[in-house]
Amino acid sequence: MITDGTGGERSTHSSDGGQRADSAEVMAALQASLGESYIVERELSGGGMSRVFVARESGLYRTVVVKLLAPDLSASLSTERFQREIRLAAALQQANIVPLLSAGRSNDLPYYTMPFVEGRSLRDHLEREGALPVRLGINVLRDIARALAYAHAHGVVHRDIKPANVLLSGGTAVVTNFGIAKALSAALDDGHQETLTLTGIGIGTPAYMAPEQAAGDPSLDHRADFYALGCLAYELFTGGPPFRGHSHEVVAAHFRDVPPSLAATRKDLPAAVATLVARCLEKDPARRPQSATEILNALDASVDMAPLVHRRRPRHGLHGARRHLACTRCARDLVRGGHHVGGVPHPARSGLRSNPRQPALRLAARAVRRRRRRHHPAAAISAAVTDGRGPYR
User: Fold this and answer.
1) Number of Cα atoms under 13 Å in the Cβ half of residue 204
2) Torsion of CA 74, 75, 76, 79, to 10 degrees
3) What is the distance between the alpha carbons of residues 76 and 362, in angstroms, rounded to a whole number?
4) How many CB atoms lie within 10 A of CB 88?
5) 123 in Cβ contact with 85 (< 8 Å)
6) Residue 53, strand partner residues
7) Which one has a higher pLDDT value, 319 or 90?
8) By the 8 A CB rule, do 86 and 142 touch?
9) What is the mean pLDDT of residues 128-153?
10) Please, where are the H alpha helices in the chain?
11) Mean per-residue pLDDT for 287-298?
C-alpha cells in the first residue's frame, strides 16, 4: 500500500465526480508552476484543506508528494506569514519526521512538497486491523514522542496529531504535516480562523483537539500536542477515539467528559501506560506531561512490561521458558564440570572433574538425556541436580 498520509490511495473520480472533473486542468497548471524540476504523474485523495498530487523529481528521480491548498482556504491566507512558518517547519530534520522539501505558488494557490513515503497510514492500519497489540502500540507512541520532542525543542507545535498524519513504514512510525496547521493558523485572518476551528479543517481535527485549541486560546502551546497524542493512544489500544459523534458533540465532550479508563477496557495494557494516557487527556494543560521527553521516558520504562506480540507457550507443562533454560544450563554445567549451579560458584568443581561417577553428575547427565528424548519438564531437571545427593546438599 502506498500512502502520503491522507489515509490511503484511491481514484480521484467516481464519487468525487464533479469536484475532481478539473483534475487535468489543475495538474496542468501545477506542472507549469513546477517547471522542469518535477513531473506531475497523478492525483491522490485529498483532505478538506488540500489536493494531493504525486510527482517525480527530474534531477534525482525520486517520488514526492505535492500538496496544493484549496482555493477557499487560500483566499484569506497571508502568503508572507505562511511562507515564514513553512520555512520553520522545513528546518526539522529528524528520523521520525517527514520533512518538507519545498514550497511555492500555483495560480495563486500555495503548495508544498514532501517525500513520498512507502507504507500506509496509521488510520488505514486501524481501519483494516483494529486496535494494535500492546507492544506495537507502545513502539508507535515512542516514535511519535521522539518526533514531538525534537520539534518542540525547535519551537514547532504540530497542532494536528492524528492517525492520518502518522505513517507506518519499514517498522517505524513517522509523523507528517509538521508545522502545516501552525502555518495556516498564523497566516489566516481572525474571521476565517474561527470558521475553520468549528469545521476542524486546517488547524485541527475535532476528535483529537485539545480543549484550549477548540476554544481558540491564543496561548496554546506544545501541550496541546500531548492531548492529541493521548487521544491517538486511546484509539491505538481500543480501536476508537475517546469521544465520538458529530463534530460539535465531540468538541463539547473534550471540555466536559472523561473517557472510560484504559485499564478497564484493555486488561493487558501496563498500568503505567494507562496512567500516562489519562494524564495526557487532562483538560488542564498544567496537569498533563510537561515535555515530550517525559512521555518518552515513561514509555521506555513500560515497554519491558508489555506482553510480547507472539509468545509461544512452553510445552509439557513448563511454567516458564526462563526457568526451563536456567535448569537446563545447571544440568549441562554439571556434565561439563561448570563453575556454578544456578549462578552460585561451586567449590567442588575439581572433584566433579576428577570423579565422573559422582551421584549428582550421573543424575544430571541422565536428566539431560531424558529431556533430549522426551522434552522432560524443567522441574525434573531441577530436582535431578538439587535432590540432596552429592556435593549439592
Assistant:
1) 32
2) 50
3) 87
4) 18
5) no
6) 43, 66
7) 90
8) no
9) 95
10) 23-34, 71-74, 79-90, 122-129, 134-153, 180-187, 190-199, 211-214, 223-238, 247-256, 262-265, 271-280, 292-302, 321-336, 349-354, 359-374, 378-385
11) 96
Could you give the dihedral angle defined by the CA atoms of residues 276, 126, 53 and 104, in that order, rounded to the nearest 10 degrees? -10
Query: Model's pTM, two decimal places?
Result: 0.69
Q: Is 133 exposed, middle or buried (0-12, 13-18, 19+ CB in 10 A)?
A: middle
Dist. CA 359–CA 336, nearest whole Å: 15
Which comes out higher in pLDDT, residue 341 or 138? Answer: 138
- Read off the pLDDT of residues 187-246 as tens digits, 9 standing for 90 and up: 665 444 444 443 434 367 899 999 999 998 888 999 999 999 999 999 999 999 999 999
Residue 86's alpha-carbon distances to 51, 100, 101, 203, in angstroms, are 17, 8, 10, 14
DSSP per-residue codes, 53-90: EEEEETTT--EEEEEEE-HHHHTTB-HHHHHHHHHHHH
Q: What angle do CA 280, 284, 290 make, to 5 degrees?
A: 55
What SS3 class is residue 366? helix
Residue 83's pLDDT band (boundaries 50, 70, 90)?
confident
The Cα 338–Cα 332 span in angstroms is: 8
Residues 98, 286: Cα–Cα separation, whole Å: 29
- pLDDT tens across 16-25, in order? 444 444 678 8
Phi and psi dihedrals of 38, rounded to 5?
A: -130, 150
- Chain position carrying cell 535432590: 387
Residue 166 burial by Cβ neighbours in a 10 Å radius (0-12, 13-18, 19+): buried
Nearest to 339 by CA among 331, 347, 159: 347
Q: Could you tell me the three cell numbers for 122?
A: 496509521
The cell 527530474 sits on which residue? 58
Q: Which residues are catalytic?
A: 160
Give the residues across from 106 on adjacent strands: 109
Distance in angstroms (rounded) separating the CA atoms of residues 56 and 41: 7
Q: Scanning the structure block, which residue is given the C-alpha cell 517525559? A: 294
